[in-house]
Specification:
Elements (H helix, E strand, L loop, with lengths): L12 H10 L8 H16 L5 H21 L1
Helix pairs in contact: 1-3, 2-3
């Protein structure tokens, strides 16, 4: 997976997140990881992120996490 992502020092964190989402493949993960990540990202989004790329990446990540959790329940 790390070979698919650009070096983090070379690009903005939102671009790294977007690349990670684009390269995302099915990987077994405990549901608690999704729940924790979604809760933390919701808090970040609610804090009023002003960077549009970061806001979109956060929203897309939360949507993917929630969709994965819905499939598991």
């Amino acid at each position: 997976m790390s070979a698919l992502l650009p070096p983090s020092a070379a690009v903005a964190p939102a671009e790294v997140a977007a690349a990670a989402l684009a390269a995302l493949r099915s990987v077994p993960v405990q549901i608690g990881v999704f729940q924790a990540a979604a809760a933390l990202l919701d808090e970040v989004a609610d804090a009023g992120e002003e960077d549009d790329a970061r806001r979109r990446a956060t929203a897309e990540t939360v949507a993917l996490l929630r969709a994965a959790m819905d499939r598991e329940s």
